[in-house]
Design brief:
transmembrane; mainly alpha; transmembrane helix; transducer; Rhopdopsin 7-helix transmembrane proteins; 385 residues; lipoprotein; two-stranded antiparallel sheet; Neuropeptide Y receptor type 2
Length: 385
């Protein structure tokens, strides 16, 4: 189901919703609601309402937001600022950073507030916008990782230098956002913002999913399972296939020249970095997707006393992927590490960046550049990281 669908099921009646929220907010309730005294405010029972747990959650979410905003902004900054970093692969990596930055700024602060308050006090507009933005960002991330893997597979396995121009890469990025927006749209459309009176005198505002009720057809579960396949299983299967073939190709490569060997070493390091990015993404989101799927299939999971805490912990783990990528770039890729350091030092040149292209091809390209200057013909830089 959607990222913010922690409370409520899709086709509940008002009585069922009342019962669900009663279990979440009233400790060990054995007396019927109608027999409860009208004046006392129910005591919140889930662990996310404990001060100690809330302090930990505030620290966790704030750390993710801070690291994510700084790291992803830095990635976008160096790709835009330094001409040597403006390559097709780096444009895709910057697009990944934009998606993560969207989650860090638009989703996580509101999710934290919702978790701490135990009810939605941010208005009906954000009730629709926040889960949609998070779903959109996750779709963009998975599609972008898939595009990067397929592009590198084509270039490395089939010995093709990238023929994707920068203009085409921007077109691919635009299509990625358009398709992702369409796939995530049900998270904004099928949303309900309503008030629940748990007992007389005590009401809470709820933001939950609301799917059409047509007999035994459960649209919420259908959408959830479909998105699990489209957003997680299928992309990871394609990515794994591509990188396994790439890794086999690079492992079996025999370089006839030292310059060519350095080129393949750089490609191997870049591929290793991108594989780590995919692994971190897959591992971070696996518990969250699994728990969501189990909750959709078996509604009894909602009866767990610590359902909200378990959901929140898995959500925090998933959100760690939003700041991990810049750390991996700086640790595993010399070009990004140099660019980051140069950005902090306010320098304008990146002389130590090594493009991912063999010496022989660089000589050929240099000749083409000189020729193009004489003839006025165009020249397109090759892809590198």
């Amino acid at each position: 189901m959607g990222p913010m669908g922690t409370l409520g099921e899709e086709n509940q009646t008002d009585d069922m919703k009342m019962e669900l929220f009663t279990r979440l907010y009233v400790p060990r309730l054995t007396t019927p609601l109608s027999e409860l005294a009208p004046d006392p405010k129910p005591e919140l029972k889930d662990s996310t309402m404990l001060v100690e747990v809330q302090i930990i959650l505030i620290f966790a979410y704030c750390s993710i937001i801070l690291l994510g905003v700084i790291g992803n902004s830095l990635v976008i900054h160096v790709v835009i600022k330094f001409k040597s970093m403006r390559t097709v692969t780096n444009f895709f990596i910057a697009n990944l950073a934009v998606a993560d930055l969207l989650v860090n700024t638009l989703c996580l602060p509101f999710t934290l507030v919702y978790t701490l308050l135990g009810e939605w006090k941010l208005g009906p507009q954000l009730c629709h916008l926040v889960p949609y933005a998070q779903g959109l960002a996750v779709h963009v991330s998975t599609v972008t990782l898939t595009v990067i893997a397929l592009d590198r597979h084509r270039c490395i396995v089939y010995h093709l230098e990238s023929k994707i121009s920068k203009r085409i890469s921007f077109l691919i990025i635009g299509v990625t956002w358009a398709v992702s927006a369409l796939l995530a749209s049900p998270l904004a459309i099928f949303r309900e913002y309503f008030l629940i009176e748990l007992i007389p005198g005590f009401e809470i505002v709820v933001c939950s999913e609301k799917w059409p009720d047509e007999g035994q057809l459960n649209y919420g579960t259908i959408y959830s399972v479909s998105m699990l396949l489209i957003q997680y299983v299928l992309p990871l299967a394609i990515i794994c296939y591509a990188y396994i073939r790439i890794w086999t190709k690079l492992k079996n490569h025999v370089s006839p020249a030292a310059g060519n060997d350095q080129y393949h070493q750089r490609r191997r390091k870049t591929t290793k970095m991108l594989v780590c990015v995919v692994v971190v993404f897959a591992v971070s989101w696996l518990p969250f997707h699994t728990f969501q799927l189990v909750s959709d299939i078996d509604s009894k999971v909602l009866n767990l006393k610590e359902y909200k805490l378990i959901y929140t912990v898995f959500h925090v783990i998933a959100m760690c992927s939003t700041f991990a990528n810049p750390l991996l770039y700086g640790w595993m890729n010399n070009n990004y590490r140099t660019a980051f350091l140069t950005a902090f030092q306010c320098e304008q040149r990146l002389d130590s960046i090594h493009p991912e292209i063999p010496t022989a091809i660089k000589v050929k390209k240099n000749l083409e550049v000189k020729k193009s200057h004489c003839t006025g013909g165009p020249f397109t830089q090759p892809t590198n990281v």
